[in-house]
Design goal:
By secondary structure, the chain is an alpha/beta fold. It folds into three domains: 86 residues, no CATH class; 81 residues, no CATH class; 144 residues, L-arginine/glycine Amidinotransferase, Chain A. It has nine helices and 21 strands. The strands form eight sheets. It has a three-stranded mixed sheet with strand order 5-6-7, covered by helices on one side. Strands 10-11-12 form a three-stranded mixed sheet, with helices on one face. A three-stranded mixed sheet has the order 13-14-15, sandwiched between helices. β1, α1 and β2 form a beta-alpha-beta unit. The chain starts with 11 loop residues before the first strand and ends in an 18-residue tail after the last helix.
């Protein structure tokens, strides 16, 4: 017998995306408007009501157009832990119940190598939520199998974590996830170090993530809107909306303003037509601001930032042509700045050391990309550092290992780097409790 669920108490919501052609029976609708309304609805369930939203992509059934698939309510009756899959009158709609997309990796995708055990794909990755840990099988030949798996998981926009410890072994067939906890079997194929890496990977940073849908501005394509770091400088309960150099990017601030307003932050606008300021040129150390004067940020922009946050010293520093300040440095902790070892970065560091009244430990990185990390002090005073992977920055692995006691989270960023972005580009970090 199904367990009884008190009415009105829900933990999850299953939704399905709007197809490109949702017209039924000749009725025409504004697809873009329908998709926006759907996005607002889903955002309300996730952000304000607090439900965990599971979204099935539109038209996942390979060969069939499913114009009514977004009406997911029709597909099941759920009570407690029991679900009755329904039988719609329209026979075409009965295909909507197939909501899982199967991604098949062809056998022996590695060009010159025979991979006889590649069908045992379970061993190659541990996946939980939007994070995937690529494992490290005992058999060295099997480690080549992870490449094809990595490509597929990257296409699914999962955060990929690599196992970089040569002493660790881990295979998925030794891991049981119950939905609440992991059990790892220590066997010939999986050792204690592998189990420890798994535990470190799936420790939760503990941040609440508010996601703004891509291209929320109705009539405009915003190709750089994912670089949300540029749109605001936030400290305490005050947010300064920036003024990017590219006029088209200034439209991106509207969606950011709405989210920050919901968080009850005090919003300050930059109203000086001569000022430019982008967040990727601003480093806040917890004690002071450094602003990189670059192609994207000018002196007037730095002055407005200083007027906005008068409790903190604000210093301007030069950055090399074509570079943003956070391309060459980031915070690695309350007292630590991570810096690129390039000639231009060393010049910037020298000026910062001359201007500051505080002491910082400086960790030098041999690769520019390794200098941009995201530091978070999580629950129970746990230090987390999101940093580029070994594949992206092989020469910097030993430097990251100097963060003793940290939970290191290697996070791929190769494609964003091609566009001039970095890990910090993806987010605005806020210390604020939600008002709902």
């Amino acid at each position: 017998m199904a367990s009884v669920c008190p009415y009105g108490r829900f933990t999850h919501a299953v939704v399905r995306g709007i197809p490109q052609s949702p017209s039924v029976g000749g009725v025409e609708v504004e697809v873009a408007k329908l998709q926006r309304q759907y996005g607002v609805f889903v955002g309300t369930l996730r952000q304000k009501v607090g439900l965990q939203v599971l979204e099935i992509p539109a038209d996942t059934h390979t060969n069939t157009h499913l114009p009514e698939s977004w009406r997911i309510e029709d597909m099941a009756i759920i009570q407690g832990d029991m679900a009755l899959l329904t039988r719609p009158l329209n026979q075409e709609r009965r295909q909507e119940k197939v909501g899982l997309q199967v991604l098949e990796i062809p056998a022996d995708t590695h060009t010159n190598t025979h991979l006889p055990e590649s069908w045992r794909i379970e061993d190659m990755a541990i996946i939980q939520g939007d994070m995937a840990l690529l494992t490290r099988p005992l058999n060295q030949e099997r480690r080549q199998e992870t490449e094809a798996v990595r490509r597929v998981l990257t296409e699914l926009n999962l955060t990929i974590v690599e196992m970089e410890d040569d002493g660790a072994t881990l295979e998925g067939s030794d891991v049981l996830f119950t939905g609440r906890e992991f059990f790892v079997g220590l066997s010939k194929h999986t050792n204690q170090r592998g189990a420890e890496i798994l535990a470190n990977t799936f420790q939760k940073v503990g941040l609440q993530v508010l996601e703004i849908p891509a291209d929320t501005h109705t009539n405009t394509h915003l190709p750089e809107s994912w670089r949300i770091e540029d749109m605001a400088i936030i400290q305490g309960d005050m947010a300064l909306l920036t003024r990017p150099l590219n006029q088209e990017r200034r439209q991106e601030t509207e969606a950011v303003r709405r989210v920050l307003t919901e968080l009850n932050l005090t919003i300050v606008e930059m109203e000086d037509d001569g000022a430019t300021l982008e967040g990727s040129d601003v480093l806040f150390t917890g004690r002071e601001f450094f602003v990189g004067l670059s192609k994207h940020t000018n002196q007037r922009g730095a002055e407005i930032l200083a007027n906005t946050f008068q409790d903190f010293a604000v210093s301007t520093v030069p950055v090399s042509a074509g570079t943003r300040l956070k391309n060459i440095c980031s915070m690695g902790g309350p007292e630590t700045i991570i810096f690129s070892n390039s000639e231009g970065a060393r010049r910037t560091l020298k000026v910062m050391e001359q201007l500051t009244d505080h002491h910082y430990d400086v960790l030098s990185m041999p690769e520019d990309a390794a200098a941009n990390c995201v530091y978070v002090r999580g629950a129970a005073e746990v230090d987390y550092l999101l940093h580029p992977t070994q594949n992206e920055c092989p020469d910097s692995v030993s430097a990251f290992q100097k963060f003793a006691g940290y939970t290191l989270l290697p996070t791929a960023c190769s494609e964003a780097s091609k566009l001039g972005g970095a890990l910090s580009s993806f987010c605005l970090l806020i210390n604020r409790k939600l008002p709902y």
